[in-house]
Amino acid sequence: MRNRTLADLDRVVALGGGHGLGRVMSALSALGSRLTGIVATTDNGGSTGRIRRAEGGIAWGDLRNCLNQLITEPSIASAMFEYRFAGNGELAGHNLGNLMLKALENLNVRPLEAINVLRNLLKVDAFLIPMSEQPADLVAVDHEGLLIYGETEIDQMRQPPQELMLSPAVDATREAIEVIGEADLILIGPGSFYTSLMPLLLIAELAQALRRTPATMVFIGNLGKELSPAAARLTLADKLAILEKYIGKKVIDAVVVSPQVDTRNVTDRLIIQQSLEAADIKYRHDRQRLHNALEHVLQSIS
C-alpha cells in the first residue's frame, strides 16, 4: 500500500526507557490504544534505585516517566502521581508515582496490571508493558574483562563494554512478545544507548521477536550528547551494528536523526535527517517534528 500514514496503522510499538520513550509516546499519543511502549526495567539510580535497594522488585522509574508524559487531562490523580517529596527526610527525592507502583507490586498485583490500574486512573489510552516482570540488573564486561554492575556504574564507563548481560537472566513479559508480533511499525530510541535501549535486547525472547517481525523498524537517534562517555564515542553506524548484533539480524529499515549526526557508513537504509529539537529544550525531540519525520518514513518505504 502506497502512502501509508500513522493513522492507518493498527499497532505501533516503541521500545526504550526514560525520557526518550516518553517523548516518542507523547508525540504519537493520538494513536490511543494502538500505541504500546515496551519499557526497560533495570534502572538502579535515583528514587527507583533507593526503592529497589530497600524493597527489591523491578525498576519503576521509566514506566512512571512514560505515564507522566502521556497524561493529557491534569487532575488531582495526576498531580499526586507526579508529586516528588522535598526536604531532607527519608522521603526526600522520592516520587509518589514510584511508591504507588511499588505498593501495588507489594500487594501481589502483576506489574503489568499495576500499570493498567494507574493508566485507568490517569486516563491514559496508550499501553505500557515492562520488558520483564522479574527484577534484573544490567551488567557489563569492561575492556579488562571485569564485571561492572548496575546502570549508574555502566554509564560512567569510559570505554565501550565488551559485552552486556542481565543478572539474573529473565523472561520477557508475555504481552511484549505478542505486541511485537502484531506491530506494523516498531521504534527504537531515543535514549541512553547502553542503559535504556540495550537492556531490552538482552532478553532472548524479545530479540527473537524482533528478528521475526515483518514490521517496519525505525531507529530514532538522540539529539544531545550522551552523558555516558563510552556511548558518546559511538557513531550512528556503530550503534546500528551493536543493536543488530544483539537482535541477531539486520532489521532496522530507517533512521531518524538530526542534521548534525554523522551518517557515514550507514548503508541500505532510509535516512531521514532533519531538525527535530523542541524550542524549549534542545536535547528533547519536538513532538510535532518527530511525528512528521515518522510520517515521512512511512511514505518513503511503504
Count the strands? 10
- Name of the CATH superfamily: CofD-like domains
Helix percentage: 40-55%
- Give the count of structural domains: 1
Average pLDDT figure: 95
The termini sit apart by: 6 Å
- Shape assignment: globular
Radius of gyration: 18 Å
Q: How can the largest sheet be summarized?
A: 7 strands, parallel
Report the β-strand fraction as a percent range.
Answer: 5-15%
Strand order of the largest sheet: 3-2-1-7-8-9-10
Low-confidence segments, given as residue ranges, are none
CATH class: Alpha Beta
Provide the CATH architecture: 3-Layer(aba) Sandwich
How many helix segments?
Answer: 13
Structural class: alpha/beta
* Helix-strand string: EHEHHHHHEEEHEHEHHEHHEEH
Query: What is the CATH T-level topology?
Result: Rossmann fold
Topology:
Layout: E1 12-16, H1 18-27, E2 35-39, H2 46-55, H3 61-70, H4 76-82, H5 96-106, H6 111-122, E3 127-130, E4 137-141, E5 147-149, H7 151-154, E6 163-167, H8 174-182, E7 185-188, H9 193-201, H10 204-212, E8 216-220, H11 229-232, H12 236-247, E9 254-257, E10 270-273, H13 287-301
Parallel strand pairs: 1-2, 1-7, 2-3, 7-8, 8-9, 9-10
Antiparallel strand pairs: 4-5, 4-6
Helix pairs in contact: 1-3, 1-13, 8-10
Give structural notes:
With 302 residues, this protein is α/β, with parallel strands linked by helices. The protein has one domain: CofD-like domains (Rossmann fold, 3-Layer(aba) Sandwich), CATH 3.40.50.10680. It contains 13 helices and ten strands. It has a seven-stranded parallel sheet, with helices on both faces. A three-stranded antiparallel sheet has the order 5-4-6. A hairpin with a 5-residue loop joins strand 4 and strand 5. The longest helix is centred in the last third of the chain and has 15 residues. The model has no long low-confidence stretch (mean pLDDT 95).
